[in-house]
Design a protein that fits this description.
Rossmann fold; 3 domains; eight-stranded mixed β-sheet; AB_hydrolase_fold; DUF829_TMEM53; DUF829 domain-containing protein
């Protein structure tokens, strides 16, 4: 497993298989290690999803620049996979993960950070975001948040933190309050607004919480879920009775897995529908520019193998034909509906071929069939008789076609 270090933390692929349903981006809680998130990575892997795991540093919560740098690295790592083939993406923040990295990921995608991605890359990631799972999250951002996390038993994985660690945490918290007191409230408002704005990216929400969680209070989680619903989000709130902070899966593995499975399946379905819609819009736009090139391409295929019928091509009874864009090549589409949708895209064929009396072919046939010396003959077409009468001096005997045939055989 290759770990990649950034200015604000480290990240690695917990599972990276070629055959996968999608990608889960795990924003682990502060001070967590690989062994702490392994059970979650295994859970997503059992459902066919790869995992990109991010471990943020403590100071990311107080220095947004550090969180922004780490978020930029995470997005670039994702883009390497998505440019090969798009997959549904589900963000899974734990505990303080939204503040330490996730909200900066969302801001970069929305173009609200100093660090900028290519607009096409931002749109690619945005189109792939298909769901969100909040586990013991989000937590409210206050000035003593770092201190409470450092000394919390569920974070340290011990019943009582060492006394010296508590002293250090209190000292750091007091120093940060003195330095950044005026910035905390503005950062807090920006933090919550960014999380709410993720509704515009689409995808369902699964929020797992507990009434016994003092780091992520139940009322804060409920208010967050209610606000997402008011903004139009598809939200499912699951309350685990008696489970500690980031301990829901350990106490309720069956219920936890069932909830996660349901959301990942829904995310995959939403991504599939979204890709079909985007391809339809793209093909429809390209069809306005390629009405000629696409029919020529299919006509060439039919010329190579004329026994096969055109797939997705509808011939109208009149002297024109209709060629839909490639998105309509899927089987099962109603042919009549295709005609109704694209009547303006009809490409008219010419009428049955005729010979131009003044063309090259006419001149060749005339030279072959008619002798050079036509003196004494009356050569007039019906059209020319109606329009321009010939010189009377050249009107002699009527035209005899047998003479033309005999003379041409010479």
């Amino acid at each position: 497993m290759k770990e990649m270090w950034g200015f604000g933390g480290r990240y690695y692929w917990g599972r990276r298989e070629m055959e996968r349903e999608g990608i889960v981006v795990v924003f682990a809680w502060m001070s967590s290690q690989e062994r702490h998130v392994k059970s979650y990575v295994d859970l997503y892997g059992s459902l066919g999803w790869n995992s990109l795991v991010c471990h943020s540093q403590f100071l990311n919560m107080f220095f947004p620049e550090k969180a922004e740098t780490l978020a930029f690295d995470i997005l670039n790592e994702l883009l390497e996979e998505l440019k090969i083939r798009p997959y549904p993406i589900v963000f899974v923040p734990f505990s303080d993960g939204p503040k330490a990295c996730l909200y900066k990921v969302l801001q970069i995608i929305e173009g609200k950070c100093e660090v900028q991605l290519n607009p096409d890359d931002c749109q690619l990631v945005r189109d792939c975001i298909s769901g969100h799972i909040y586990d013991s999250s989000p937590v409210d951002f206050t000035s003593d948040l770092g201190r409470r996390f450092v000394v919390h038993p569920s974070v340290l994985k011990m019943s009582r933190p060492p006394r010296i660690l508590s002293w250090m945490a209190n000292g750091i918290s007091s120093s940060l309050d003195a330095l950044f007191l005026n910035r905390f409230e503005s950062q807090r408002a920006e933090y919550w607004q960014t999380l709410y704005s993720s509704v515009s990216m689409g995808g369902p929400y699964l929020i797992l919480c507990s009434e016994n969680d003092d780091l992520a209070p139940y009322q804060v989680i409920c208010n967050f879920a209610q606000r997402l619903k008011e903004l139009g989000g598809d939200v499912k709130l699951v309350k685990m009775n008696g489970s500690p902070h980031v301990g829901h899966y350990r106490l309720y593995p069956v219920d936890y897995k069932a909830s996660v499975t349901e959301l990942l399946c829904k995310a995959a379905a939403i991504f599939s529908q979204r890709i079909q819609r985007l391809e339809g819009e793209k093909m429809g736009f390209e069809g306005t520019h390629d009405q000629i090139s696409e029919p020529i391409s299919d006509l060439r295929k039919a010329t190579v193998n004329p026994q096969h019928s055109f797939r997705g091509v509808t011939f109208a009874p009149s002297d024109h034909f209709f060629m839909p864009s490639s998105v309509e090549y899927y089987e099962g589409r109603d042919v009549e509906s295709l005609q109704d949708e694209h009547k303006e895209s009809l490409v008219r064929l010419r009428s049955p071929p005729t010979i131009n009396p003044h063309g090259v072919l006419s001149q060749i046939l005339f030279d072959v069939c008619v002798p050079k010396n036509v003196e004494g003959w009356d050569l007039r077409s019906s059209a020319s008789l109606n329009r321009h009468p010939l010189n009377p001096s050249r009107r002699h005997a009527p035209f005899n076609p047998m003479k033309c045939i005999r003379r041409s055989r010479l």
